[in-house]
């Protein structure tokens, strides 16, 4: 099969100035380095759309929680999931290749991609969205140029959250409807209304709960504005709506890692909250795919101006999984069904959350997988209802077609509590983004779950269990590849010196748990430990740190 020479010529003109590796987050770098990468990704997205029968694939321009001067690009599969791992490798090869013709020829034969623009067949589309960074809209025009060069349709949704674009792609391919923001928010509104009618413990119109959402000065603010327009959720107060710098001293990643109150660029919103109100604080990240809740140590909300010295207690992904599992079990117990429910964690989940989930009993099953949202999502889809969150606040509840079909049959054939429970579970499937983790959906989901439980204050949620003291460290090394693990990253197999130390420490301190793994994208080795005493834990972690640096080498100055 011949390749249109115009495609070869254009792609040769766009050569990256450094090597890039496609990871879970796609390609990310300083925005000024990205034009060649984005153009070639536009070509690749078109190739992916041509390789399978589909309506469209997606391409999102964002760097999520990264600083505002960064940007990135990621490709979305026709089913709304992240790019297939095989195509991740193809992406890295194509972006870095000095001879892209060779890569394109391989795709001709191995993936049946037609590289000519005169095809008479129906051509798919590439759906494109971008976040609020200054560099995002200009980069999207490069994608348009590449997609049209391939002879495909180009549809740009403009400024959207990353999960919204995942949703648009999934719905267009699976449901055959015109995906847009309106039906995205209508699904959220429908789920909230059903739960309001059948499940909320307190349906008072004048509830004294205010929901303060830190929008990280990103595109999530626009989505939250739309949410308040479409739903009946009361008392939403958005802060960091664009007056400050994107992700700087605010947002989910900052809160989760630093456990301090965000800097608020528009604190007058908080000062307007009544002094006797109950307040739910939460943070989105820059492209609104992560959400964490937090409780400030200071309780006088009117005086919270955003001092970075104000400590907070973070309710992160583990606790979202626990909250979801409790409510799902509550409804399933009423149905007395055989639906399987899996809560998927990594070895980095706090051990106290894992034990709490195990103690819930049937039908809840707890499964541990390797680090990375792809592993969590893949495992979650093996269950009728799969619950997964990373500690960083990225996650969702996935409902299989089997589960939704079962619930519809219950609704049609029963009355009373069983019917109500089935309606409520279907409502949760409507709220939870079925394509990917979504901070906007998860905000509605978390607020729904709290109301189902009748918990107006976040402390009721927090007090379900007490996290084990834990310690995390990222070590910059010369050669991270020397670290090898097995058993879902819970056991170190190499180097031998580290394996021996880890084994000896674990055997002599059975109440403690230690994890060591190489970063997937940086020359960093990540250390994690937890146990009953933080001072003892830190001493034990220092021994592991010393051995890691000896084995892998310290970075050259």
TrEMBL record:
Pathways involved: Nucleotide-sugar biosynthesis; UDP-N-acetyl-alpha-D-glucosamine biosynthesis; N-acetyl-alpha-D-glucosamine 1-phosphate from alpha-D-glucosamine 6-phosphate (route I): step 2/2
Stretches assigned to the Alpha-D-phosphohexomutase C-terminal domain: 513-545
Coiled coil ranges: none
MF term (GO), any: magnesium ion binding
NAD listed as a keyword: no
Domain of life: Eukaryota
EC number: 5.4.2.3
Reactions listed under catalytic activity: N-acetyl-alpha-D-glucosamine 1-phosphate = N-acetyl-D-glucosamine 6-phosphate
Necessary cofactors: Mg(2+)
Residues covered by the Alpha-D-phosphohexomutase alpha/beta/alpha domain: 57-97
SUPFAM superfamilies (alphabetical): Phosphoglucomutase, C-terminal domain (SSF55957), Phosphoglucomutase, first 3 domains (SSF53738)
Protein name: phosphoacetylglucosamine mutase
Species whose genome carries this gene: Galdieria partita
């Amino acid at each position: 099969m011949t390749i249109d020479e115009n495609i070869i010529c254009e792609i040769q003109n766009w050569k990256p100035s450094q090597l890039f590796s496609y990871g879970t987050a796609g390609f990310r770098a300083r925005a000024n380095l990205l034009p060649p990468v984005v153009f070639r990704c536009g070509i690749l997205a078109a190739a992916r759309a041509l390789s399978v029968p589909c309506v469209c694939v997606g391409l999102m321009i964002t760097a999520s929680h990264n600083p505002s001067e960064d940007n990135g690009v990621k490709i979305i599969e026709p089913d709304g999931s992240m790019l297939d791992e095989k195509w991740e490798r193809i992406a890295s090869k194509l972006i870095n290749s000095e001879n892209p013709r060779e890569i394109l020829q391989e795709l001709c034969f191995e993936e049946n991609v037609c590289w000519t623009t005169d095809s008479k067949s129906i051509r798919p589309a590439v759906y494109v969205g971008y976040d609020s960074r200054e560099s995002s809209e200009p980069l999207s025009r490069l994608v348009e140029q590449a997609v049209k060069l391939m002879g495909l349709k180009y549809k740009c949704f403009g400024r959207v959250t990353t999960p919204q674009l995942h949703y648009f792609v999934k719905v267009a391919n699976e449901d055959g409807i015109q995906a847009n923001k309106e039906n995205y928010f209508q699904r959220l509104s429908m789920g909230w209304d059903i739960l309001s009618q059948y499940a909320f413990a307190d349906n008072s119109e004048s509830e004294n709960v205010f929901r303060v959402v830190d929008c990280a000065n990103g595109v999530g603010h626009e989505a939250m504005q739309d949410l308040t327009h479409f739903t009946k959720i009361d008392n939403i107060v958005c802060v960091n709506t664009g007056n400050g710098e994107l992700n700087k001293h605010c947002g989910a990643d900052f809160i989760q890692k630093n456990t301090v109150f965000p800097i608020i660029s528009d604190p007058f919103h908080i000062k307007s909250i009544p002094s006797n109100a109950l307040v739910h604080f939460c943070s989105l990240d820059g492209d609104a795919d992560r959400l964490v809740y937090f409780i400030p140590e200071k309780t006088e909300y009117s005086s919270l101006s955003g001092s970075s010295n104000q400590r907070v207690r973070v309710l992160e992904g583990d606790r979202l999984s626990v909250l979801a599992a409790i409510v799902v079990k509550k409804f399933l117990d009423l149905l007395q069904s055989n639906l399987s429910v899996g809560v998927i964690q990594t070895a980095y989940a706090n051990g106290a959350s894992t034990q709490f989930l195990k103690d819930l009993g049937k039908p809840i099953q707890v499964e541990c997988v390797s680090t990375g949202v792809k592993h969590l999502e893949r495992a979650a889809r093996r269950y009728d209802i799969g619950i997964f969150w990373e500690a960083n606040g990225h996650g969702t509840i996935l409902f299989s077609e089997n589960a939704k079909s079962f619930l519809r049959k219950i609704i049609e054939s029963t009355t009373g509590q069983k019917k109500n429970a089935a309606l409520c579970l279907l409502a949760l499937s409507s709220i939870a983004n079925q394509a990917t983790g979504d901070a906007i959906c998860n905000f509605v989901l978390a607020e729904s779950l709290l109301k189902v439980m009748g918990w107006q204050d976040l402390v009721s949620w927090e007090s379900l269990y007490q996290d084990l003291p834990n310690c995390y460290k990222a070590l910059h090394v010369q050669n991270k590849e020397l670290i090898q693990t097995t058993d879902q990253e819970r056991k170190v197999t190499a180097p031998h010196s580290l394996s021996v130390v880890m084994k000896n420490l674990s055997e002599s301190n059975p109440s403690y748990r230690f994890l060591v793994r190489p970063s997937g994208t940086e020359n960093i080795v990540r250390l994690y430990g937890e146990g009953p005493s933080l001072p003892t834990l830190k001493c034990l972690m220092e021994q592991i740190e010393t051995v890691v640096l000896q084995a892998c080498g310290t970075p050259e100055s």
